[in-house]
């Protein structure tokens, strides 16, 4: 080859101008670029902001302690908003911050209109919301409506006699069962019987969760209006929406106990309240882990989003079995069943299940590959605090075993790990000196660096939140691949579930002719009629193709 043609060749390679070039580093030479930061800002100003947002679930008690009592608090969280902003977070979901006897980590609320004194005051809450909004970070709260704490004033009154004004605010029965509540509800989600004898009233009350969490009686219209007023109270304070706890369980009937028509009707009323406040959103915690369709109504009269637990809580098994079929199936299902406009809320962990680190069985690549799928699918990702560090589980239990996934955030390797100057309310998780924000920040190969890159990749690109999604045939259950596209951009995102290198043919005819890898490893060689995708063992690749 002549010097001139060699020169031309290297220029082409440098510019990434060869058709079918499939390596990284050449995206900007091959595809139109935009000012992604200002695109992101525009998306966050529009009515569909939540479809393009990145949410972050925070357990305030474990995030940042500001006064040395070992308990995370609202002022502490406020001081960490810049960290969240830099990570690319658009909205935070606060687990319950209300006064509580803490029998279920705050999901037992004793006053819906206050703030847990361990966490601060209503003024601290207002300051948090103001500081978040200043940084264009929205704040949603947990709305726990199925039950209260047994220390709530409503229950104190209700249990005091059979004739008091709130006697029917909870579900009471002379026997530890009730014909109207059939459908297996005589046993609780936590523990044995769902009926607890109250000695004062000498009757049993119904509790779907711990005995300290009596279920409210939604057959009583006063309960309906009192709980809708709780939503109004916080919307008036400026919150941007709610994550609705076990909302499918509000009403029971003789034959059904999950999301019966009366519960759906309540949800529509709640949506009307929320719609009185522009730009506010609702996300459902569905109790059916594999089908959330019933929560979404016609796409605009119930929830804006529902958690996709079919992926979020089960991906670990798919990776363990090196088999993507269950992942493909669960997304195929939501694709075909969702009403237009409804959105998956995509997780790989939460306060209720073992940490992503544990679900990945300590395999860092599994965690990354699981996140790559979470971040590639049509929907809104919700990160659980510490997931970005691959936070290890703890081994101390204050409330129940879920505490292993609720340990304090790790900011550095100091004795209090930057979380507290005192004794942490719950012992730190494992390997706290190695896996913390400061250490991972300094390491380009860390989980935090991976998340920074992966999250940056989504910013401002509307295609991830609202673009079309097509699951690609790869010819093997060992390779998962999805095609995402809108008018402006398209991506192929692929994950090798197995430990061996895989090379597969993608047969979709119009994937384009150019590919640039933007994250991960591997190659995608496109030609008319499809392409060849190669991924190393335990690898994933995200390729821009338009
Ligand atoms: C939801 C919460 C869980 C809580 C339960 C009862 O599932 O996520 O943490 O224990 O509801 O409120
Ligand atoms: Ca504190």
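Sequence proposed for the structure above (546 residues):
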């Amino acid at each position: 080859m002549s010097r001139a043609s060699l020169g031309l060749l290297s220029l082409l390679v440098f510019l990434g101008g060869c058709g079918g070039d499939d390596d990284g580093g050449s995206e900007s030479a091959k595809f139109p670029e935009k000012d992604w930061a200002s695109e992101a800002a525009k998306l966050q100003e529009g009515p569909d902001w939540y479809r393009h947002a990145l949410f972050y679930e925070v357990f305030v008690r474990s995030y940042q302690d500001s006064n040395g009592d070992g308990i995370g608090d609202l002022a502490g969280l406020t001081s960490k908003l810049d960290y969240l902003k830099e990570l690319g977070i658009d909205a935070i979901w606060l687990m319950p911050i209300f006064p509580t006897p803490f029998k279920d980590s705050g999901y037992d609320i004793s006053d819906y209109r206050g703030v847990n004194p361990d966490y601060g005051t209503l003024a601290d809450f207002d300051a948090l919301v103001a500081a978040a909004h200043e940084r264009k970070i929205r704040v949603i709260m947990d709305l726990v409506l199925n039950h209260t704490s047994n220390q709530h004033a409503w229950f104190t009154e209700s249990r005091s006699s059979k004739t008091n004004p709130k006697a029917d605010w909870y579900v009471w029965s002379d026997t530890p069962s009730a014909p109207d509540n059939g459908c297996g509800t005589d046993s609780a989600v936590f523990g044995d019987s769902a009926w607890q004898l109250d000695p004062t009233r000498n009757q049993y009350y119904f509790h779907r969760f711990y005995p300290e969490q009596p279920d409210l009686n939604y057959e009583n219209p006063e309960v309906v209006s009192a709980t809708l007023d709780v939503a109004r109270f916080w919307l008036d304070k400026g919150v941007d929406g709610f994550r609705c706890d076990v909302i499918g369980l509000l009403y029971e009937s003789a034959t059904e106990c999950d999301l019966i028509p009366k519960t759906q009707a309540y949800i529509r009323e709640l949506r009307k309240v929320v719609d009185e406040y522009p730009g506010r959103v609702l996300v459902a915690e569905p109790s059916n882990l594999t089908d959330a369709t019933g929560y979404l109504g016609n796409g605009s009269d119930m929830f804006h989003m529902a958690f996709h637990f079919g992926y979020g809580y089960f991906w670990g098994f798919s990776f363990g079995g090196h088999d993507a079929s269950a992942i493909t199936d669960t997304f195929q299902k939501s694709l075909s069943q969702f009403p237009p406009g409804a959105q998956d809320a995509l997780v790989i962990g939460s306060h209720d299940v073992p940490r992503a680190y544990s679900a990945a069985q300590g395999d860092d690549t599994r965690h990354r590959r699981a996140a790559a799928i979470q971040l590639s699918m049509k929907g809104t990702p919700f990160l659980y605090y510490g997931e970005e560090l691959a936070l290890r589980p703890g081994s101390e239990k204050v409330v129940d075993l879920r505490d292993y996934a609720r340990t304090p955030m790790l900011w550095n390797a100091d004795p209090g790990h930057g979380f507290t100057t005192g004794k942490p309310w719950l012992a730190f998780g494992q390997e706290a000196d190695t896996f913390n924000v400061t250490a991972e920040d300094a390491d380009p190969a860390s989980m935090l660096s991976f998340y920074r890159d992966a999250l940056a990749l989504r910013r401002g690109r509307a295609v991830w939140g609202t673009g079309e999604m097509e699951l690609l045939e790869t010819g093997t259950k060992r390779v998962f691949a999805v095609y995402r596209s809108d008018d402006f951009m398209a991506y192929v995102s692929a994950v090798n579930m197995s430990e061996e290198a895989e090379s597969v043919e993608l047969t979709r005819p119009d994937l384009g002719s150019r590919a640039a890898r933007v994250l991960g490893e591997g190659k995608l060689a496109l030609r008319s009629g499809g392409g060849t995708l190669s991924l190393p063992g335990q690898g994933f690749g995200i390729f821009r193709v338009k």
